[in-house]
Amino acid sequence: MIIEFRCEIEHARRWMRRETLSIDGRDVPVQIAWTTAAESRPAGLDALFALERVVLHKGKPSGAERLKIIPERTQARTGTADVIVDFTSGARDRDCSAPLYLRPLFNGTAGENAALAAILGGELPVIDIVNEIDGAVLDRGHPSGEIAAGLSGALETVMARTLTMVAAILSGRPRILPQLARPAGDASRRGPLGYVARGLAASIAKEIYRLCCYAPHWHIGWRFNDGAGVWQTGDLSGPRWNVLGDPGNHFYADPFPITWRGRTFVFFEDLDHRVGKGIISAIEFGDTGPVGDVVPVLEEPWHLSYPFLIEGDGELWMIPESSINGDVALYKCVRFPDKWERHATLLSGFELADVTITRHNGLNYLFGAWRDGTGGYSDSLAIFHADRLLGPWLPHASNPVLIDRASTRPAGNFVTINNRLWRPVQNCADGYGAALGLAEVVELSPTKFKQIVRHSLKPGPTWPGRKLHTLNRCGRLEVIDGSRVQPKTSAFARQFPSAVLPPRTRPSTAC
Predict the structure, then answer these.
(1) pLDDT of 157-201, one tens digit each?
(2) 3-state SS string over 123-182?
(3) Neighbour count for residue 324 (Cβ, 10 Å)
(4) 378 Cβ partners below 8 Å, 6+ apart?
(5) Looking at CB atoms within 10 Å, which of 103, 279, 401, 496 has the fewest?
(6) Beta bridge mates, 280
């Protein structure tokens, strides 16, 4: 197979500089056919990208930067193309003999200008990949922008996820087309200069915030609930939520409660802001709340979070997120709660976040937010299935089964209510971890997947945290998490109260 990208030479970008496209682990040759521009770009765009490189990207080039073309290579060909991917807004070449002619659309319109218009309107666009030969939509997705810094970063993210979708189509796997509403955007759309200026100002404000505060600072909410819980009410109402205390220079997130051999513990990500790496810790809960101190239970040289727990074969197992290590590892509890040993590697070579497993119709299904090395971390859902927990785990026929920033990333345990399967999902439409969705899984098999988000939960009067991205329950105990402003001076005061507070106001004990 030979893939041909059709791109406008006047607006060549660094992301176009490639000789292959990875499809199911094999590198398929890519050649570039340069065309003349059908539309002009906003004036000064490249100068603005250069400014963002200095201020936002710390001098590192982005994929959206201008590519300097070597003239003698502009007409290079490796052979007759089997697939055309046309990134321009120009008309399709009617004389093209390629059996597959793909056209990316951004909010329904072709070309980079359409992607830029959506970004300038305040939203990353919904991406459709259309076969121009018969007009069929072959794939659809809505990328997340949690790491998209500025205009150049947003454009790079959109194009990176476009290539993810193209590779999925060319793999031959069947695609699942979700119903995704195109964002309305901002009617008073800013021009590039105003957009970049606002982005730079926001970046400076964030840097000042990070100098003064630990960011982000997650905290865990808990309550005992004898009545209907979040899954039954579809909201956060009910008994008052309590906050699990933290030392200030650590944050706690991703709570997973479990009762094992008569004792209840909540396991969670414990990140020391001074180190910047997470470990897994736990705290015991009694009839009235937390008992004793937080206990570290698992640490690796790499970052750990999201300690998914599962019982099987009379043992207790944990799958902490270790996507930075490129694998999905299974740990066995050898002494509850504080001693765990790595037992097996379920998947390797995958950047898979927040792995969550459920058993459905006789099979185990493993869900995770999948990243192929580029783009956001929260918009692509991969599913694997196996007869046994130890595997072998086989990929779903349509991986990635969903690309949607608002309903992809796992946010806690699956639950079954009245024989209906549900999963909490992170809604990252307004930023990473901004809200929760409660999604009913209406179809799940090794070849099918469909979910419907029935409820949306956001911070508010009942949970005044700034974000919300995990939900779990064990018996009467419900747990969630969120974020708050955590000044660094407060953490310092906890360690050295006399250095910060005058004698009359100094607390008698540390918080």
Answers:
(1) 999 999 999 999 999 999 999 988 777 655 455 677 777 777 677
(2) CCCCEEEEECCCCEEEEEEECCCCCCCHHHHHHHHHHHHHHHHHHHHHCCCCCCCCCCCC
(3) 15
(4) 144, 146, 353, 369, 405, 408, 409, 426, 428, 432
(5) 496
(6) 269, 298
Q: pTM, whole model, 2 decimals?
A: 0.91
Cβ-proximal residues to 245 (8 Å cutoff; 6+ apart), any chain: 511
Q: Which two tokens stand for residue 84?
A: 């055309």
Range from 32-46, 311-325, 436-450 carrying the lowest mean pLDDT? 32-46
CB 511, CB 494: distance < 8 Å: yes
How many Å apart are CA 490 and CA 251, to the nearest integer?
13
Evaluate the omega torsion of the peptide bond into residue 392 and state whether it is cis, within 30 degrees of 0: yes
Are 245 and 491 a contacting pair, CB within 8 Å?
no
Q: Per the structure block, which two tokens stand in for 24?
A: 């199911």
Q: Which residue has the tokens 């944990």?
A: 318
For residue range 75-86, what is the model confidence (pLDDT) as tens digits? 455 578 999 999
Smallest CA-to-CA distance from 29 within 59, 2, 53, 63 is with 2
